[in-house]
Amino acid sequence: MIQGKYINQDKSIFEDAVSLMQLNKNILLKGPTGSGKTRLAESLSQHMNIPMHQVNCSVDLDAESLLGYKTVYTNDSGHQEIIFIEGPVIKAMKEGQILYIDEINMAKPETLPILNGVLDYRRQLTNPFTGEVIKAEKGFNVIAAINEGYIGTLPMNEALKNRFVVIEVDYISGTVLEEVIQQQSQLNDLTLIQKIVKFNEDLRTMTRQGQISEEAASIRALIDLSDLATVMPIDRAIKRTIIDKLEDDREQQAILNAVELNF
After folding, report:
1. Which positions of the chain have pLDDT values less than 50?
2. Which of 17, 41, 73, 248 lies at a CB distance of 3.0 to 4.6 Å from 83, suitable for a disulfide?
């Protein structure tokens, strides 16, 4: 098994994602932060042996961030000319590779329609900066990730969402989570790993009950926690990786209570 491969007790998630890519369908990975959406995209890239170009969305995302930009280039003879530096969308299309759009609902709705032709049957784009018509090469695939209901996110435009097939990605747990911690962290104390998994189950229960935010139970935080537990006491590791990220005193106290119960 390759280092960092996406693992989930629901094997249909990875299997269906591979099938969708083979059918050249756009995939929308939907799930809470830290649930492994980017890891899944990276694993698909490795499994299909197709390089991946990533776009990280924010309110500042613009056409240049997606497509590229013009700049002045000075050649060896000192002559200057204006050239176009291709962005991730155009690179992925021309090279027949994967385009990964992370947190797609963080982008302003008016920015993304430029991708409509890329995401439908045409797989085509007219570069507004150069006038070049770009037709995606074979192998081009689009994977996007969405965190719904988070601060800074916006409802996803229905016309855009309709261009994707959705795969729900939830947090992992139990023996699968044990395996992930063993593979992706430096911790190899199985007894402590099992305690961390049980601790995470309590965090997940508290997130479902609305006592703490979902970020506190992310797999990403658990990997960091497990790494830190190799060099410091577990309570300090939890403080550094989870508790100190929270601003709500009640959330912090709820996690401290869970620490006392589990460790």
Report:
1. 1-3
2. 73
